[in-house]
């Protein structure tokens, strides 16, 4: 009997805005029967080594990944990277610059919240975030903790979504920059949850810039949306990726186990990464 192998290629840990530590998350994935996981924290590779050690303990495959924040016309567009060299100097320097910009953005958003009647203590906000990558999700959790809202989703619907009064993009990179950096680190790039960002017009220029894949499978994608992005993948000869975009129990609509990507897609990612290494494609 041949056992089916499947993967989740979009997971977040406490190194960015996830609920579980890298070890806890890998252990959780192993218990659910995943053969392959990818840690794709926002703008950091800080959890990869811990996750890799835990994956070895459970005898499952850990793909080093990342989700890089970019800005396209004022919209937040995320580019996933897989099979990256986490020691790549250009990648690490770029991520350091993004973190600096994220800190500045958080300060701006906290000041904007004060103007709107949310008098937050910025030092308390940073204390709450700790050594995690500062972002909107953590700020939303702080607002829930402070009693201003009942859920993270409610915060985004009212003030922190891309069209919200407090929103400010992380304006360091455009999507093409992120693709170049991922490819330069030996990795494979894929546009994250395109059904959410809804910027299909950008595909031709991203493909020209070297985009490798599209995340067709994501919990927020309905069946027609999945079908749409599978057709786009076929049109542009893109790899198909997928994952739960799991952040933890605070986001029940995106739960680990909802997306079980067939392992053939992982094999294709690895094949293309090998071509980069051998032929410099």
Automatic annotation (TrEMBL):
This is FIG00031715: Predicted metal-dependent phosphoesterases (PHP family). Residues 7-72 form the Polymerase/histidinol phosphatase N-terminal domain. Pfam families: PHP. InterPro entries: PHP_dom, PHP_domain, Pol/His_phosphatase_N, Pol/histidinol_Pase-like. GO terms for molecular function: 5'-3' DNA exonuclease activity; 5'-3' RNA exonuclease activity. It comes from hydrothermal vent metagenome.
């Amino acid at each position: 009997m041949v056992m089916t192998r499947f993967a989740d290629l979009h997971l977040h840990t406490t190194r960015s805005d996830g609920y579980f530590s890298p070890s806890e998350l890998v252990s959780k994935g192993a218990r659910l029967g995943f053969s392959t996981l990818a840690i794709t924290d926002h703008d950091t590779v800080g959890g990869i080594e811990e996750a890799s050690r835990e994956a070895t303990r459970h005898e499952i495959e850990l793909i080093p990944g990342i989700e890089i924040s970019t800005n396209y016309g004022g919209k937040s567009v995320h580019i996933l990277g897989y099979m990256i060299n986490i020691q790549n100097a250009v990648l690490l320097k770029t991520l350091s610059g993004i973190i600096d910009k994220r800190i500045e953005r958080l300060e701006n958003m906290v000041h904007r919240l004060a103007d709107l009647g949310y008098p937050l203590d910025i030092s308390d906000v940073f204390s709450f975030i700790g050594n995690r990558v500062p972002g909107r999700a953590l700020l939303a959790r702080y607002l829930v903790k402070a009693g201003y809202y009942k859920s993270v989703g409610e915060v985004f619907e009212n003030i922190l979504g891309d069209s919200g009064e407090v929103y400010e993009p992380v304006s360091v990179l455009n999507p093409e920059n992120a693709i170049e950096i991922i490819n330069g680190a030996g990795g494979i790039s894929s546009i994250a949850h395109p059904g959410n960002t809804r910027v299909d017009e950008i595909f031709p220029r991203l493909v020209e810039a070297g985009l490798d894949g599209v995340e067709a499978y994501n919990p927020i994608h309905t069946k027609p949306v999945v079908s749409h992005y599978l057709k786009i993948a076929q049109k542009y000869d893109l790899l198909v990726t997928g994952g739960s975009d799991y952040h933890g129990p605070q986001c029940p609509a995106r739960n680990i186990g909802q997306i079980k990507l067939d392992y053939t897609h992982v094999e294709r990612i690895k094949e293309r990464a090998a071509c980069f290494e051998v032929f410099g494609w």
